[in-house]
Design a protein that fits this description.
Pfam families: Integrase_H2C2, SH3_Tf2-1. It is built from twelve helices and 16 strands. The protein is of the alpha+beta class and 427 residues long. A hairpin with a 3-residue loop joins strand 11 and strand 12 (349-353). The strands form four sheets. A five-stranded mixed β-sheet has the order 7-6-5-8-9, with helices on both faces. A five-stranded antiparallel β-sheet has the order 13-12-11-10-14. It has helices at 5-8, 16-35, 37-45, 72-82, 91-98, 107-116, 119-124, 188-203, 220-229, 245-265, 273-281, 290-298; strands spanning 51-54, 57-60, 63-65, 102-103, 147-153, 165-171, 177-182, 208-211, 232-235, 311-315, 335-345, 349-353, 364-366, 370-372, 398-408, 413-421. Helix 5 packs across helix 6 and helix 10 packs across helix 11 (273-281).
Length: 427
């Protein structure tokens, strides 16, 4: 069982821990082999040219046969997966490394199970399978402006009237849209007045409104307004834009048209927003049937289902560009959790039992951002001590100034300070 570092393909320093482990296991394997009846049966019934005895160790084609007595197999897999010279290899790589030295019945299956149960791998490694969840289309509306969808477009340059956002409202049947300039900090009362003037006055009270979970759409005042009007509010699941994808697609078309107007007529976008709305509503809408949409969507997705009581990880890729969990964005885990599934909502959404630091998030998520956890629920990793707010964002505040310096330029001197921030993992 004495394997050199050259055989392992690593340096002498990196192989030091492995050398200590293999010498410690030699005697244990020799004694355990005498007690493992199944291994003895393999050696007795197998071909003579495959099994051989070497100094009390049973070998198969030169590889040491590891008995199932004790935790020898688990210890070897732990060393091959968690050692500093291993760095959490995948199941294929780990199996190919281990089969050079060891053998036991079901080695490949045990390695695959061990890697699947590794919590660190589940949080960090990308999933190379198709996203889960088939398309569940919204019911087809029967009359124009009976069912509408709405969304905000933020980040526009402030106009002369002080507007920096556009409220996009789309009829789900005719694809007619209204582009309403507003301010990002407008209260619900202002939005309700604008809604009554531009939508209800022209088209009547809609039956339902589909939107994302913007803070103004989920506020009690907005809910109260539509409760009195008799309109049903339907919100998308957390971080799943496919629900109101029609509005998102309209937003992109409207933004492209505004950019072209800005290039041709100048930067005053609000002076041309009514022209963009007129051009959009009088153009051909190449919408197709929902069954064809589902056909193309489902071809790139797979059917996945979870049961109440299962444990799942929450994907954080949709939060790209946002300070999510840790201060090192590039090296942050791809998943959070695991969390327990407490309820199934519809056919493609699940309610999760989120931890206390994620209490500000909506607890219903689409199946496409969930990944099944097969490890022990007792291995749940806490999401640091950083307070995570709505949208999986965290606020970073300065603690103290640690150093000062001056940078000499050609014509002036710039003062510089070194600031210690909280949530950096060093306090």
């Amino acid at each position: 069982m004495e394997i050199s570092c050259v055989d392992k393909g690593v340096s002498t320093d990196a192989c030091l821990n492995w050398t200590e482990v293999q010498y410690d296991l030699t005697d244990r394997v020799r004694r355990a082999t005498e007690l493992d009846e199944s291994l003895q049966r393999y050696a007795k019934d197998g071909p003579d040219d495959q099994f051989s005895w070497d100094n009390g160790l049973l070998r198969r084609n030169g590889r040491v046969c590891i008995p199932s007595v004790g935790k020898l197999r688990e210890e070897l897999m732990y060393e091959a997966h968690f050692a500093k010279y291993s760095v959490h290899p995948g199941s294929t790589k780990m199996y190919r490394d281990m089969k050079k030295l060891f053998w036991w019945p079901g080695l490949k299956k045990d390695v695959a199970r061990y890697v699947a149960e590794c919590n660190t791998c589940a949080l960090v490694k990308a999933e190379c399978q198709k996203p889960g969840g088939f398309l569940k289309s919204l019911p087809i509306t029967e009359w124009k402006f009976d069912d509408i969808s709405m969304d905000f477009v933020h980040g526009l340059p402030r106009s002369q009237r002080g507007h920096d956002s556009i409220w996009v409202i789309v009829d789900r049947l005719k694809k007619v849209a209204h582009f309403l300039p507003n301010r990002r900090d407008d209260p619900v009362e202002t939005l309700a007045k604008l809604y009554m003037e531009q939508v209800v006055r022209l088209h009547g009270v809609p039956r339902s409104i589909v939107s994302d979970r913007d803070g103004r759409f989920t506020s009690n005042d907005w809910r109260l307004v539509h409760q009195m009007l008799g309109t049903k509010l339907a919100f998308s699941t957390a971080f799943h834009p496919q629900t109101d994808g029609q509005t998102e697609r309209t937003n992109r078309t409207m933004e492209d048209m505004l950019r072209m107007c800005a290039l041709d007529f100048g930067k005053r976008w609000e002076d041309y927003i009514f022209l963009v709305e007129f051009a959009y509503n009088n153009s051909y809408q190449a919408s197709i049937a929902q069954d064809r949409q589902a056909k193309y969507y489902n071809a790139k997705h797979r059917n996945v289902e979870f049961a109440v009581g299962d444990w799942v990880y929450l994907k954080v890729k949709p939060f790209k560009g946002v300070s999510r969990i840790r201060h090192l964005k590039k090296l942050s885990p791809r998943y959070l959790g695991p969390f327990e599934v407490v309820e199934r909502i519809g056919e493609a959404a699940y309610r999760l039992a989120l931890s206390a630091d994620l209490g500000g998030l909506h607890d219903v998520f689409h199946i496409s951002v969930l990944r099944k956890a097969v490890n022990d629920p007792a291995q749940v990793v806490e999401n640091d001590r950083v307070p995570v707010e709505y949208g999986l964002t965290t606020r970073v505040r300065p603690i103290r100034i640690e150093d000062r310096a001056k940078k000499q330029l050609r014509n002036k001197v710039i003062g510089m300070v070194k600031v210690r921030w909280d949530n950096c993992g060093r306090e």
